[in-house]
Design goal:
Distance between the termini: 31 Å
Strand content: 15-25%
Strand order of the largest sheet: 2-1-3-4-5
Structural class: alpha/beta
Helix content: 40-55%
CATH superfamily of the largest domain: Histidine kinase-like ATPase, C-terminal domain
CATH architecture of the largest domain: 2-Layer Sandwich
CATH topology of the largest domain: Heat Shock Protein 90
CATH class of the largest domain: Alpha Beta
């Protein structure tokens, strides 16, 4: 799973060493920049989850860096903690007005920096989840109308096309009608995906076995995998603890992810499925393929139903999976180094007895 990334921006090498050492001990991945212009470049390549930003630096000061970050739609939601020796009230107000989430005066305790980082990252996670929930709610309000408006005309067009096909012998016309029928079926599958999303809106959780859900999912998708000669290998933990699950919806989420893996995998490729204990009272399910991977700029929006018009495969299918895992009070993440395959990790909470 991808580590949380923190960018440390300071022209004092001693401060950089202290901060990166502490953040490394806390489990974060770090990168550094020693002036403002370098910081902006590192933000583009490193994609940090949080930035520790000094103010007094060569080439561009921290105020201007923060101003540019908060002015961009791509970077405005990255939390910024300003660290500076300038402790005047006016300096703090300026930093906060620009959009920095915290303003700490040097010398500052590394323990306090660590606590502030944890707090802001937690707030960012809650904020992003709220945004995703609002998007999903908006989509839910649209799907009923879309499905209704499309379904009836499709039935009429498809039915008439099949009747006409039965009554003509001209091969060219037969080819045109077959194309119409094929496109109607494609749109009908789209409507089914929309209905699938609607039906996944509510999960009724009961005690269940994750391994059982995985095995049933593999049984349903084995023919699709076999058509591409894809080898699905799995290593499931023995006698896993029970989880609170909606068996039907969770299977739907797993099938959507497996379908994406099959689509991405080369013919005669391989998919690995693993379950294991995870810290904090969770069971982790990992699905790994060896496909082409996902471009970095697309990865951060992989669960966003409004990011792509693709309503099958990696489009609405992953939105459905995300919604279902959220309903299970779990977490789903995707790692995908371009050209090296994709790893989907799902963490689900274990039932706590007593």
């Amino acid at each position: 799973m991808r580590k949380i990334r923190v960018l440390v921006v300071d022209d004092d090498e001693g401060n950089v060493v202290l901060l990166t050492s502490k953040l490394g001990v806390d489990g974060y991945e770090t990168d550094v920049a020693y002036d403002g212009l370098e910081a902006l470049k590192k933000v583009e390549t490193f994609n940090p989850d949080l930035i520790l930003l000094d103010i007094m630096m060569p080439r561009m000061d921290g105020y201007e860096v923060a101003r540019r970050l908060k002015a961009s739609e791509k970077t405005r939601y990255i939390p910024v903690i300003m660290l500076t020796a300038r402790g005047d009230v006016e300096d703090k107000v300026l930093g906060l007005d620009i959009g920095a989430e915290e303003y700490l005066c040097k010398p500052v305790s590394l323990v306090e920096v660590s606590a502030r980082v944890r707090s802001l990252l937690h707030m960012k996670e809650l904020q992003m989840r709220l945004i995703e929930m609002e998007k999903l709610a908006s989509l839910g309000q649209l799907v009923d109308g879309i499905a209704h408006e499309i379904r009836n005309p499709l039935m009429t067009i498809g039915g008439l096309a099949r009747r006409v096909k039965e009554k003509i012998d001209d091969e060219q016309l037969q080819g045109h009608i077959n194309l119409i029928i094929h496109e109607v079926e494609r749109l009908e599958n789209l409507v089914k995906r929309v209905d699938e999303y609607k039906n996944a809106q509510v999960s009724e959780l009961k005690k269940g076995d994750l391994n059982e859900v995985i095995r049933e999912s593999l049984e349903e998708i084995k023919d699709i995998a076999a058509a591409k000669a894809i080898d699905i290998k799995f290593s499931l933990m023995q006698d896993p603890p029970l989880l609170m699950i909606d068996k039907t919806n969770l299977k739907k989420a797993i099938l959507n992810i497996l379908q994406n893996s099959i689509d991405a995998a080369d013919r005669k490729g391989e998919i690995k499925i693993t379950t294991m204990p995870s810290e904090g009272g969770y069971i982790e399910l990992v699905i790994k393929d060896k496909g082409g991977g996902i471009k970095a700029e697309a990865l951060k929006d992989i669960f966003n139903p409004f990011y792509t018009s693709k309503m099958t495969g990696a489009g609405l299918g992953l939105t459905i999976a995300y919604k279902i895992i959220q309903d299970h009070k779990g977490d789903i993440t995707v790692e995908s180094p371009e050209g090296k395959g994709t790893i989907v990790s799902i963490k689900l909470p274990v039932v706590r007895e007593g």
